[in-house]
Each structure stands twice: as C-alpha cells, then as structure tokens.
C-alpha cells in the first residue's frame, strides 16, 4: 500500500512540522548553553516542540494511512472526504505552536479577557480526532478485514480514550479538589495511552499494511489487546516515585508486561517474515527489542524508574523518534529514496545515542566532555535528511 497523490500534501505538511519542531528541539539544547531571547523559556520551548511533534508530525500520517486502508474498496471521493478533517487538524496544530512557544499553558491577555489559548486550540484539535474517528468508523462498517485494520481500530480506541485524560485535566481545574496527584495522573494517563497505545498500534498497523502477514498459530487478539490495556496502566511510572502507592506500582508493572507480550509477538512475526529485511526494518526490529528489554528491566527489582527525567526523555524519543518516525518515513517513501531514508535512520540513531549520555545511567567516568554541546549538534542532524525527504516529495509528485 502507498499514499495516493491527494495525500502527498499531508505528508509534506507533516515533514515541515517535523522540521519546525526539530529546530525547536535544537533551540532547547541551545538554550541550555546560551541565553535565549526575552520571554522565551525552556519549559515553553519543550511544550511547543512536543505538541507540534504529536499534533502534526505523528497524527496526520497515521490518520492518512488509516483513511487509505479503510477506503480501499470505496471510490476516491470517499477517501478525499477525510481531507478536510486532516487539514483542519494540521492548521490548528500550526496555530497552537506560537502560543505554546510564547505562553505554554498560561493565559494570554486579549483585550479585557485572559484566555489559555494553547489549551483551547489543543481542545479543538481533540475534536478533530473525534471527527476523524467518526469518518473512519463510518467506512469501517463496509471495509474488509485485515490485521492492519484491526490494529488501526485499537489505535483509534486508544486515541479517544487518551483524550479523556486530557479533558479530565481541564475539567478538574474547575473543581474545588486540590490534588496534584489526580491532575498529574490524568496528564500522564493521556500521555501513556497516546504514546504506548495510539502511536504504537498505529505504526504497527502501517507496518503490517506494508507486508503480507506470515501464518501464525495464536489468536490475533494477542497482538493488540494486551497493548491497548497495558497502555492504560503504565501512567504511574511517569509520576513522582515518592507519591505513588504500592497498588499503583503493581498496576503499572502489569501494564508494562502486557505491552511487552504484544510487542514480543510482533517482533516474532517480523523475524519470521522474510520481507522485513534490510537495514531500516532491521533497525525497527532492534528498537522494538530495546523497548521490550527496557520494559522488562523496569519491572525487575533493578531500581530503574522510567519516570526519571533523563531516562524518560531517552525512552520517549526511542519510541516516538526511533520507532514511530522511522516506520513512517520507511513506509511512506518508496525504495528509490533509500539513501535519504538511511541517512534519516542514522541521524535518529545518533540523537538516541546522544540522549543515552544524559539518561542518568551512563557511567560518569565514561562521560564525553562538553556533552551538552554535542547534544545540541546531534539535535540538528535529523533535520538534514528531513529537508532532503521533503524535497524528494516534489519529484514527479510521487513518493
Ligand atoms: C529532531 C528530532 C528531535 C529532537 C532534536 C528533539 C529534542 C527534544 C528536546 C531537546 C527535548 C527536551 C528534553 C528535556 O526536557 O530535557 C524534547 C522533549 C520532548 N520531545 Fe523531542 N526531539 C525530537 C523528536 C521528537 C519526536 C519525533 C517526538 C514525538 C513525536 C518528540 C516528543 C518529545 C516529547 C513528548 C518531549 C517532552 C519529554 C518530557 O519531558 O516529558 N520529540 N525533545
């Protein structure tokens, strides 16, 4: 399966978002070493970076792929009916960027009123997710069956459930209950289900849309049910270790084990499948392996806490920049763009290696001198192949 012409513009806008959000990540590293312009804080730069990556880099290509898969038997007009929704989401994503950069979640004075504009635009974006869910659900009634579509169904359930956590935070602000634990738990519930559920199931759906599935002897539910439920249980790991109860810890461990079960089965099928070969797919398989090992280590009594800042940033980028971004680039661009794709993968791996040094688990006696300077340089690397891939999308208007 490939992206049709009408969706190439969506991919181009996603690549532009990756480049802008990547420059913002670079700005964060720059700001750790040199003074930033007045009014720009590191916290707001991080918000602008992570939200643009989530809203415009990750969601549109997964949704575009889902739309193509679910309308495979329908006419082109049905497929095009998804475009207004995806474009509205992208425009809102771009619109939220300057507000996150300048104000974060704080209110902005507009005349006599004071409004949290970035939060309001984020709410509108979540409404476009429901719009997309409705369009997909409508077409799903008449579409065929495949593992890829089942994974997309589960991914969409995760997206909708994750958004409930985000709404919960907003509604909670208007109650009289003053509990940082509940508010923080809802934020991290959103992040956990969004990343481990929506993103992981979505990119696995794309991956299996690229390949014919090898025969397997277990129920296909094992490939998504543990992952979906596990994604809802892991959020306590992102909370402060001191405030979570033993029950929450056990629940989070169960979540990690469930996710590891589904991912191990996907890995098994990938290894069994002869087409999942070559440097890029092997890198994807290696990243899934590292993710599984990391999750198992977090369950074992090794005193590893995934929520610690350095480790958390490394893990999130392993999942979102490593696994998700590589699968998107590899699946969407055809093989004739192989050199640019391989350069992208190498650049991503260098960013991930650079994050290992500040994970908090790297031996201090092996630390690279001026590590934050090297991190700043590494942050620029994926932008070079991203611009290259963007230019390639204009070649004969075909990926
Ligand atoms: C060009 C590639 C990228 C670079 C250079 C980059 C850089 C950064 C930097 C510097 C931070 C702040 C780290 C800190 O707080 O110490 C950060 C945080 C973050 N990034 Fe990225 N990033 C990249 C790709 C991505 C992608 C593709 C995603 C998601 C799709 C992503 C999502 C996030 C999130 C969610 C955070 C917040 C982590 C947290 O503190 O909870 N990043 N990134």
What's the number of extended β-strand segments?
2
Radius of gyration: 21 Å
Strand order of the largest sheet: 1-2
Helix content: over 70%
Which structural category do the helix and sheet elements fall into? mainly alpha
Bound molecules: protoporphyrin IX containing FE
Q: Regarding quaternary structure, how should these chains be classified?
A: single chain
H/E topology pattern: HHHHEEHHHHHHHHHH
Q: Per DSSP, what share of the residues sits in E-state strands of 2 or more residues?
A: under 5%
Please state the average pLDDT score.
92
Ends: how far apart? Answer: 12 Å
Largest sheet: 2 strands, antiparallel
- Shape estimate: globular
The unreliable regions are none
Tally of alpha and pi helices: 14
Topology record:
Layout: H1 8-33, H2 42-70, H3 76-80, H4 83-103, E1 108-110, E2 113-115, H5 117-140, H6 147-173, H7 180-210, H8 225-233, H9 246-272, H10 278-299, H11 309-332, H12 338-357, H13 371-380, H14 383-392
Antiparallel strand pairs: 1-2
Helix pairs in contact: 1-2, 1-4, 1-13, 1-14, 2-4, 2-5, 2-7, 2-11, 4-5, 5-6, 6-7, 6-8, 7-8, 7-11, 8-9, 9-10, 10-11, 11-12, 12-13, 12-14
Protoporphyrin IX containing FE (HEM) binds at residues 22, 25-26, 28-29, 46, 49-50, 53-54, 57-58, 312-313, 316-317, 320-321, 325, 351, 379, 382.
Give an overview in words.
This protein has about 400 residues and is mainly alpha-helical. It has a domain of about 130 residues. Helix content is about 70%, strand content about 0%. A two-stranded antiparallel sheet has the order 1-2. The termini are close together. The model has no long low-confidence stretch (mean pLDDT about 90). The protein binds protoporphyrin IX containing FE.
């Amino acid at each position: 399966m490939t992206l049709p012409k009408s969706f190439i513009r969506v991919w181009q806008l996603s690549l532009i978002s990756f480049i802008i959000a990547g420059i913002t990540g670079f700005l964060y590293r720059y700001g750790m070493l040199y003074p930033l312009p007045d009014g720009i804080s590191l916290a707001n730069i991080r918000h602008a970076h992570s939200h643009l990556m989530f809203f415009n880099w990750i969601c549109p290509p997964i949704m575009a792929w889902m739309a193509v898969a679910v309308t495979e038997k329908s006419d082109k007009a049905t497929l095009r009916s998804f475009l207004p929704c995806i474009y509205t989401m992208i425009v809102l994503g771009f619109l939220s960027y300057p507000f996150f950069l300048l104000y974060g979640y704080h209110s902005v004075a507009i005349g006599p009123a004071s409004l949290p504009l970035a939060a309001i635009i984020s709410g509108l974006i979540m409404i476009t997710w429901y719009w997309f869910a409705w369009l997909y659900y409508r077409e799903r009634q008449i579409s065929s069956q495949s593992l890829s579509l089942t994974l997309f169904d589960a991914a969409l359930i995760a997206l909708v459930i994750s958004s409930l956590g985000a709404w919960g935070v907003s509604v909670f602000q208007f109650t009289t209950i003053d509990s940082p634990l509940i508010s923080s738990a809802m934020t991290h519930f959103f992040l956990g289900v969004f990343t481990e559920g929506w993103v992981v199931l979505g990119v696995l759906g794309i991956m299996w849309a690229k390949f014919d599935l090898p025969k397997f002897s277990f129920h296909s539910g094992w490939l998504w049910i543990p992952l979906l439920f596990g994604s809802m249980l892991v959020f306590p790991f992102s909370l402060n270790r001191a405030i979570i109860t033993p029950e929450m810890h056990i629940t989070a461990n169960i979540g990690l084990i469930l996710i590891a079960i589904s991912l191990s089965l996907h890995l098994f099928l990938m290894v069994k499948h002869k087409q999942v070969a070559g440097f890029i797919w092997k890198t994807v398989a290696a990243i899934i392996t590292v993710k599984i090992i990391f999750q198992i280590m977090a369950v074992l009594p090794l005193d590893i806490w995934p929520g610690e800042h350095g480790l958390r940033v490394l893990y999130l980028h392993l999942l979102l920049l490593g696994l998700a971004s590589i699968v998107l680039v590899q699946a969407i661009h055809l093989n004739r763009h192989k050199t640019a794709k391989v350069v992208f993968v190498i650049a991503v791996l260098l960013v991930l290696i650079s994050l290992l040094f500040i994970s908090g688990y790297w031996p201090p006696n092996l630390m690279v001198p001026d590590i934050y300077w090297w991190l700043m340089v590494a942050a620029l690397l994926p932008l070079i192949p991203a611009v290259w891939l963007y230019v390639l999308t204009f070649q004969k208007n075909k990926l």
